Each structure stands twice: as C-alpha cells, then as structure tokens.
Amino acid sequence: MKVHTYEKAFLAVGAVVLVACALALVYATVVHGIHLPDVSGRVDPANVAATPPFDQPGVYQRGPDEYEAVVIGRAWSFQPTEIRVPAGAKITFTATTTDVIHGFNIEGTRLNMMLIPGQVSKNTYTFAEPGEYLLICHEYCGLAHHLMHGRIIVVPAGTDVPLVNGGAVAADAAESAAGDAAHVNH
Ligand code: CUA
Q1: Is the bond preceding 76 in cis, omega lying within 30 degrees of 0?
Q2: Residue closest by Cα to atom 1 of ligand 1
C-alpha cells in the first residue's frame, strides 16, 4: 500500500499533537496538582441551618493567619452578605445552599464554585491586597438571580475582623502560635 507523502506528514503532525496534549495533561495533574474539586462533605439541604458550621455563618479564626468563612447561599442572597477578612491570611470559604444550585464567584480571583444542594463546597484563597470584592451568584437560580450578591471586604493585615466565635483560636494552634496570632487579633 502506498501512502502519499503529504498524508504521512499530516498523520505525523496529528500524532505529535496528540502526544503533546497527553503529556500536558499529565504535567498539569502530576507537577502542578490540578484536579477537579473533591467533595468536601455533605449536608442535609433541609437541615442546613441546624448543621454546624452552617448554624452560625460568618468568619472564624482557625489559626494564626488562618480563617474560615462559612457562607450559605439561598434564593436570592448570601448569608452573611458582607464578609471581612484580613489581607495576607489564608481564607477558606466553606459554603452550601439550602435550595437550588447557586454560584459562588468572587470577581477578580480564581474563586469560582458551584453550590449544590446536599454538598459542601470549599476553596482556599489569600487576598494579597486590601480592597473590596464582589461576590456573585453565577448560576441561574430563578427570578432574582441577578440580584444575588455579597461583598468581601479585605482589610489590611493586622486589622481586627468581626468573628463569629469571638476570636477564639483552636487550642492547639493557639499554643504553638500565640505570638504570631497577637498581631492579627489583639
Ligand atoms: Cu443564586 Cu443565581
């Protein structure tokens, strides 16, 4: 069988592109650790308000320079609507929904999650600079979808932020890092 030269070249180019894409995929997953988000937990959507930590949405300090923002999405608002966190700290957003699928997107960042009834969504981010960020729902969720938004206010590092739990640091973290914590939460 005679294969035309141009046809051979075309096949070769196709093979090279295929191998290059496969290698890029392996490189992204192995070297850069890029994966689809895992399921971070489950929660009964009918019982969100009674299930910790969602029974008290807000900001918790989890360690020196480490905070968790617990957020509930529902048609058509976020609770709390305004979240204050310090710049430079590691912020974990833990969110879920009580009704339908909502989006959780903080503009200008890579924070982009879906809130799915029954599932807990988590993502961690460090805001480098103080400023205001818009939190929007970017999954169509009904009539007032376009009004569903919140605000993330990033205050300068070292500024107090209102905490749901009164600023109590987990006991083990407090011991090892009492000194570090002092500048965040005095
Ligand atoms: Cu919630 Cu769109």
Answers
A1: yes
A2: 102
**Pairwise CA distance, residues 181 & 63, whole Å:** 7
Run of H or E residues at 180: helix 171-182
Ligand 1 centre distance from Cα of residue 41 (Å): 21
Q: Which amino acid is at 88?
A: G
Please state, as a whole number, how many other Cβ atoms lie within 10 Å of the Cβ of residue 96: 28
Ligand 1 atom closest to the Cα of residue 102 is 1
Q: Which residues contact 161 (CB under 8 A, 6 or more apart)?
A: 59, 67, 84, 85, 86, 155
Q: Beta strand 131-136 with 149-155: parallel, antiparallel or unpaired? A: antiparallel
Q: Name the pTM for this structure.
A: 0.72
Query: Tell me: the pLDDT tens digits for 132-179?
Result: 999 999 999 999 999 999 999 999 988 888 777 544 444 343 444 444
